[in-house]
Design brief:
The protein has 270 residues and is mainly alpha-helical. The chain has a 3-stranded antiparallel β-sheet. Strands 1-2 form a two-stranded antiparallel sheet. A two-stranded antiparallel sheet has the order 6-7. A hairpin with a 4-residue loop joins β1 and β2. The radius of gyration is 20 Å and the shape is globular.
Length: 270
């Protein structure tokens, strides 16, 4: 695949950067729309989004660099070449989450609600952003066959893109994108539940994405490693565990208490 979307001579626009940008716009729109329902000040959400994006991107890049440190110590300038790939979503999620919590506390806005607002936007953003990996011919799995990919209904253009040096590879980026898209749809449906509790959306994100990444990571060939362990699988297991704890903790008490849709509850928790 050609990683360059547009070559103007003096500047090159990469598909990877384009899809990351699209992911931020679509994901951010989802967050804005949900925040508006709870009457969160628009300037607060705008500023939060403005600062969270670079923090999350830096976190995603540093996470990737740290676990490829031997290479980047020899090629330090390559740390800046994010358009070539190398953003670890787990690093972005961790950095973004910590920043959102601290920023919300500073301005007396409920971070518990805000991370619920962000969860669906994050999932749809991940679903879109994964396509940047497709054009960089990265985040794929091991060798497979054309017949197998056709048998599981992988689109023809994805199969063609996964033919690298005369071999076909598992399009794990595609599997993860679909998984995140399905998760996003489920969250949108869950948000309509009458007795939804605060932070059950967050718990769903952690469990859903953790489960998907746990199995998809096993197929990938470009894993970040600690010894013989895949780092993403370790983090995914932690996400699942934390998600389960949050779910049961948020489910305590009467179903009429601590409801997600209670705007008065949001105002009291600010």
């Amino acid at each position: 695949m050609n990683p360059i979307f547009l070559d103007l001579g003096f500047i090159k626009i990469y598909w990877y950067s384009l899809f990351i940008f699209m992911a931020l716009i679509v994901g951010g729109t989802v967050v804005f729309n949900e925040s508006k329902k709870f009457e969160v000040p628009e300037n607060f959400v705008t500023n939060l989004f403005f600062w969270t994006i670079p923090v999350a991107l830096i976190g995603a890049r540093l996470y990737y660099v740290v676990f490829n440190l031997s290479y980047y110590l020899k090629n330090p300038l390559d740390i800046l070449k994010v358009w070539e790939g190398g953003l670890a979503i787990h690093g972005g999620v961790i950095a973004g989450l910590l920043f959102i919590i601290s920023y919300c506390k500073r301005y007396s806005i409920s971070y518990k609600y805000m991370i619920d607002f962000c969860a669906p936007g994050l999932l749809i953003g991940q679903a879109i952003g994964r396509w940047g990996n497709f054009f960089n011919s990265e985040a794929h799995g091991g060798p497979t066959t054309y017949e197998f990919l056709k048998s599981i209904f992988v689109p023809e253009f994805v199969i063609d893109g996964m033919k690298i040096n005369e071999f076909y590879y598992q399009p794990t980026f595609y599997y993860e994108s679909l998984w995140c898209l399905v998760g996003f749809i489920i969250i949108i449906l869950i948000r309509k539940l009458k007795y939804l509790k605060l932070n059950q959306i967050t718990s769903f994100y952690l469990i859903w994405y953790g489960l998907g990444r746990l199995f998809i990571e096993a197929m990938r060939t470009d894993n970040l490693m600690i010894g013989s362990f895949r780092i993403a699988q370790i983090v995914s297991l932690l996400m699942i565990f934390i998600g389960i704890i949050i779910y049961f903790k948020s489910s305590k008490g009467s179903r009429f208490v601590n409801q997600y849709h209670d705007i008065e509850n949001f105002n009291e928790s600010k």
